[in-house]
Every structure is written in structure tokens, then in C-alpha cells.
Amino acid sequence: MAPPGFELVCEIEPPTRPDLKHVRHQIGVLSSIAGTFLIPDNHIGRATVSSVAVAHEVEAMGGRSIACLNARDRNLLGFQRDLLTAAAYGVDQFLLVRGDEPRTGGRTSELTVRTMLAEARMFEGTAGFSGARKLRLGAVVGFGELPDWKREADFLFVQVGFSPEALLRWSERVQPQMAVYAGVIVLASSAMARNLARTIPDIDIPSELVEQVDRDPKAGIEAACDLVLAIQDLKIFQGVHLIPVSCYRSVAARLEQLLGGP
Does 1 map to a domain? Predict the structure, then answer.
């Protein structure tokens, strides 16, 4: 388990079928290193079980959950529905995201991350939220400037990167005043690395790491775990948003070893 004051938030793979067994298995395995889990919402443009429903499952298993809600698939009424459903389930942490491009169809275009943040703040003060827990709302940021409206979020997830020094320079430049979680992803293959380079602006993946992963896929696991420890040593972030992809068993075992177990 991560030491006090440093939080590992593990992203889980949401189900694309009406079956939560794989979700429960991921939570069970990753619970050895993490107590909080991020649940994507219609991940990479594919329909998945509701992030709010999966977040409720996480809470029922004794973990803390952060449910993603994306602007792509919602109008205002749908967003309010999800907030009410979450309140009924006791889910109170959300990462508000733009959403990947859909594989079919298009965007509703009615909501943005900025409007979702503002609407959630207003909606939690209505009669419909009477007795519900206060919401904790987050947004995603790159390595550029931090817009004023994102400074209204309760926490930030920084895009995945591979350089603790770049994270430190970003933090010193923008001076965030809220909890910040640095993004760390396991490169499972060189093909995955190339896809990330195509889809994430300004990401800098070390070529030597890609070559190492090409020779030995375990190199991606080792590099990600080492990066988690390096970010922890910076002592400026609340924690890490860890994306273990399909390697979650190996990542959990290695980090448990490095962190000294629960």
C-alpha cells in the first residue's frame, strides 16, 4: 500500500458486457496497492457498463471510487440524471472529461467539461441533493497552462507522462492549489506506445523505453513502477493516477514488493 499522504488511484477496465466479475477481480487484485479506483466512462468510444454503477460496486467492496463522466455522450438532463443516481448510490467523486472520439455516431455537443463542472456545483445545492454528500469534482490537464476555470476543480489528473522532471517544472510554473495526481501508464507493447504518441498531444515517450518494451514487455511494467516511486519522491503531488491496462496483476505484485506491502 502507498505510504500515508501519497495516494495510488488505479484505473480499472470497465466491462463492455453485462458482467461485473472482471471488475471485481481487478479490484481484488489491485486492493493490495490502492484504495481508490477510477472508472472510465464509455472507454475509447465503446459502450461500457455505467461508470456510476461500477463505482457503486467498488464502494460495496470497501474501496473508494472516482467515476468518469464524459461530455461527449450527455446532454444536460442526462448529466443531472447521473448525478442523482450517483447520490442515491453514495458515489461522490467524479472526473469530468471531454471523452474520446466515438467509434460510431457523434457528440451531443451540449456539454463541455467546463459546463459540467459549473452545473454540478449548482445542482448539488438543489433540493434533489438534500442529504447527499458534497461532491468532489476533478478535471484533466496537460502540461500547458492551467485555465482559471479548472482551478475551481477539487483535484486534477495530469496527462500521462514519463518524466518526473517535466512534472516538477509544470507544477512550479502553474502552482496548482488543489490535489494533483500525476498520470502513469504501463506500456504493454511498442504498438501501444506508438498509438499513445498519435493520440495524446505533447506526450514525450522515450525512444529507449519503446525499444526496451519491444524486446521485453516486462520493461513497461518496471518503468511504470519506477516512475510511481520517482513521483512519490518529489513530494509535491497528492498521488498518482496509475493505468495498469491488462498488466494489473504484474503491476500490483511489483508495486506491493516495492512499497513494502499493505
Answer: no
